[in-house]
Design goal:
Structural class: alpha+beta
Helix content: 40-55%
CATH topology: Nonspecific Lipid-transfer Protein, Chain A
CATH architecture: 2-Layer Sandwich
Shape: globular
Strand order of the largest sheet: 2-1-3-4
């Protein structure tokens, strides 16, 4: 089992990769309590709750980076909360997964 610092570092590495693959500020991706980023090009969000929000657990984030085909399944199971017209990040995880090295 990884300790809290290792988990935090792992989440940060994945989120940094996602920002690299999909720079922008139109979607907020939350992985509580370890991190939150804004990503995906489009209309920049500046204040309040963003219109495009995705939230998931650390476990779901790691599952997705290892197997991005799980996006729909995890959404259907309620393991990913995605709201807004730009909140489908399945393609983004496919792109990030291709560049990911654990």
């Amino acid at each position: 089992m990884e300790n809290d610092l290792e988990i935090r570092a792992h989440v940060k590495k994945i989120l940094d990769l996602i920002k690299l693959v999909a720079p922008g500020k139109s979607v907020e991706l939350r992985v509580p309590p370890y991190g939150v980023i804004q990503c995906v090009a489009g209309v920049n969000h500046r204040r309040g709750t963003p219109p495009n929000t995705v939230e998931m657990s650390t476990e779901s984030l790691i599952k997705l980076i290892l197997d991005p085909t799980l996006w729909q399944t995890l959404c259907e199971k309620g393991e990913i909360s995605a709201s807004g017209v730009a909140s489908d990040l399945s393609i983004l995880f496919t792109q990030a997964s291709a560049k990911y090295t654990p």
